[in-house]
Amino acid sequence: MSISSLLGKKIGTSQVFRQDTGEAVCVTAIETGPCTVTQIKTPDTDGYSAVQIGYLELRKVNKPQRGANAGFRYLREVEGEDIEIGQTFDASLFEVGEKVNVTGLTRGRGFAGTVRRHGFHGGPKTHGQSDRHRAPGSIGAGSTPGKVIKGQKMSGHMGNTKVTTKYLEVVQTNPERNLVLIKGSIPGARNSLIMLTKSGR
Predict the structure, then answer these.
(1) 77-95: pLDDT as tens digits
(2) Would you list the DSSP string of 4-27?
(3) Per-residue DSSP letter, 79
(4) CA 74 to CA 71: how far, in whole Å?
(5) What is the pLDDT of residue 130?
(6) For residue 87, which of 7, 102, 112, 134 sits 20 to 30 Å off, Cα-Cα?
(7) Rounded CA separation 72/198 (Å)
């Protein structure tokens, strides 16, 4: 009777010392759960199997939100079996030493140029090039094929993309405070939504 994933909130980074070796480990703290099962989807009724969980209960819930959001700010579908509606899961779902996959939205950087977004070198810094220091340069390929090739690196929206970092180690858990400490960096800004999934799922 368990699920594969939990929703949480990124708290920040810190370091802890391993009990056996005394090694200092950089960790990211995630406030994981509690998540409540709000719906169970079955092949008979929905065409597939899934468990819908809710995270961060809303203080004020109007009538449409009671049905659509089940009174929670975030709803996600995860894998699970032998689950009942109303069950609650917290940080005790994860064990010290196991590997997890972490999914989140990277920090949004707004509209960025090619130098910042893709690491372009820019133009020469001399010989009268007064306004070309951070310009992208040529983007075409001449008369053949006579067009900008699809996928050309150019200026545009940077960040705010969904990223999954795999096989990160759980260093410590604190179910009383709903905290999971994970070794390494995790995508997203502080207080951003994070999904933890047991690796191999």
Answers:
(1) 998 888 888 889 999 889 9
(2) SEEEEEEEEEEEEE-TTT--EEEE
(3) -
(4) 9
(5) 82
(6) 102
(7) 23
In the chain, the domains with their CATH numbers are 2-108+161-198 (2.40.30.10), 111-158 (no CATH)
- pLDDT for 68 equals 59
CA–CA gap between residue 46 and residue 124 (Å, rounded): 60
- Position 201 scores a pLDDT of 57
pLDDT above 70: percentage of residues in the chain: 97
Q: Partners of 28 in the beta sheet? A: 13, 182
Q: Which two tokens stand for residue 76?
A: 């996600």
pLDDT at 1: 55
Q: Which of 104, 117, 111 is nearest to 188 (CA)?
A: 104
Q: Within its chain, how far is the Cα of 89 from the centroid?
A: 19
Distance CA 58, CA 71 (A): 6
Tokens standing for 40?
């169970």
Radius of gyration, CA atoms only, the chain: 23
For residue 151, count other CB atoms closer than 10 A to its CB: 6
Please determine, for residue 65, whether its predicted confidence score (pLDDT) is greater than 80: no
